[in-house]
Amino acid sequence: HERPLLVDNTLSPEECGDEPLLIARRTGQPVCVCAERSLAVQYLLSKKNVNIVVCDDGLQHYALQRDLEIAVVDHERQHGNQRLLPAGPLREPVARLRSVDFVVESTDAAQTVQGKGYYYRRILDQVERLDGEEQRKLSTFTGSRCHAVAGIGNPQRFFAHLQGLGIELITHSFPDHHTFEAAEIAFPDKLPILMTEKDAVKCRLLSVAPERCWVVQLHAELSGNFRSAFLDKVESL
User: Fold this and answer.
1) Considering its fold, how many domains does the chain have in total?
2) Which among 34, 54, 74, 202 could disulfide-bond with 4, CB atoms 3.0 to 4.6 Å apart, if both were Cys?
3) Which domain holds residue 204?
4) For residue 208, what are the contacts with CB-CB under 8 A and spacing of at least 6?
5) Residue 3 in domain
6) 181 lies in a domain?
7) Residue 178 lies in a domain
8) Are 122 and 107 in contact (CB under 8 A)?
9) Where are the alpha helices (DSSP H) in 165-221?
10) How far is it, in rounded angstroms, from Cα 65 to Cα 61?
11) 29 vs 14, 25, 128, CA distance in Å?
12) Is residue 130 located within the same domain as residue 62?
């Protein structure tokens, strides 16, 4: 979008993107998208009663003035081959980490972070029916055979977490930000279908049986040292 677009529930993922729509629904806070990030920030500051703006994937957007930088590093992948795109996974050189305020490792619940670094854990323990009519523990599917659908950057991590809970999976991987069609998840059997929150944003618009589709909800558990250091930093700004 060349002009700032405020995300709300009336928009489709095609209009504003799947992740912005998910963030707006999960947080209830104003979310704005624009090709030029600084315009989105100006819009939020002028139209909404906000004094903190969080920019996703904003480290390398140098036209955007910032007060605080957080770099998130995957605990398992780390820096890959340490090369920049397209030769490797990095958008910035590893040396860029020396100039940010916080380097935070993202981990799964079962992983252990050594030392005194900052980290957060990805917790997947709740599911909600696609139509929002029911919630239950993810562990209720332990020992069951289910379809698992993922159109995200690292679907194998999602599948591995489910399998770690003892869920027998028939996996279905799609490209990141995939636009689903009903036929792609209209499996002929009656097994439950587990999907990510990002994919559910798009699948809710399809003519599928919501009673067999379950959205695996993700939340982050921040390490105590990061939470306190981050809040101290924000208060000092």
Assistant:
1) 2
2) 34
3) 122-219
4) 130, 182, 185, 186
5) yes
6) yes
7) yes
8) yes
9) 197-203
10) 9
11) 20, 8, 21
12) no
Q: Which two tokens stand for residue 181?
A: 């069609």
Give a yes or no: residue 90 inside a domain. Answer: no
Question: Is 128 found in the same domain as 206?
Answer: yes
**Together in a domain, 141 and 209:** yes
Query: pTM of the entire structure?
Result: 0.85
Sign, CA dihedral 105-107-112-118, equals positive
173 Cβ contact list (under 8 Å, min separation 6):
150, 151, 155, 156
- Token pair, residue 34, equals 């624009």
pLDDT tens digit at each of 237 positions of the chain: 889 999 998 899 989 999 999 999 999 999 999 999 999 999 999 988 898 999 988 898 898 999 999 999 988 889 999 999 999 999 899 999 999 999 999 988 666 666 678 999 999 999 999 999 999 999 999 999 999 999 998 899 999 999 999 999 999 999 998 989 999 999 999 999 999 999 999 998 887 888 899 999 999 999 999 999 999 999 999
